[in-house]
Amino acid sequence: MIHLKRILVPTDFSEHSEHAAAYAAELARRFDVEVVHCLHVSDIPADLLATSGYYMTGPSEQFIDQVREESRKSLDEFAKKHLPDLPVETVFLEGRPFVEIIRYAREKEIGLIVIATHGRTGIQHALFGSVAEKVVRKAPCPVLVVKAQEREFVMP
Ligand SMILES: Nc1ncnc2c1ncn2[C@@H]1O[C@H](COP(=O)(O)OP(=O)(O)O)[C@@H](O)[C@H]1O
Ligand SMILES: [Mg+2]
Q: What is the pTM of this model?
């Protein structure tokens, strides 16, 4: 019998990770888990690129704080909306996403990681996004990889 106590749901706030969170929520209920850890890793320069389109002179401390604040808020909203009525712990870390996800999974003795195949970059040609692929390779526990849904099929 599998006794699942802790599930980890890493999110980059993409639609794909919302879809993965729906699976995590259902599993958490069925397995009656103790806690669902919902983790966002801020890779600050990449986030700044996404927010501002570019930055050339280096971001100000104030701007970095603003990005941090926004990420924390998005994380709380994500958990409230996509993991409702569950014992959730939201975690905000900074660094390289896959490194922090793996480190956290080890530290907290996570029983299952639920992650989407793709994230913010979206579905391109690769089967997995780079974070998802590295998490599968290096995770200390089973990983449920939820395939991203393509919104539309464009005829070649
Ligand atoms: N910075 C991050 N923090 C937490 N989870 C992340 C982060 N980046 C990606 N992920 C997780 O990995 C999944 C796959 O994303 P990724 O491999 O980065 O694909 P893509 O190349 O399409 O962005 C996301 O849906 C999310 O669950
Ligand atoms: Mg990504």
A: 0.91
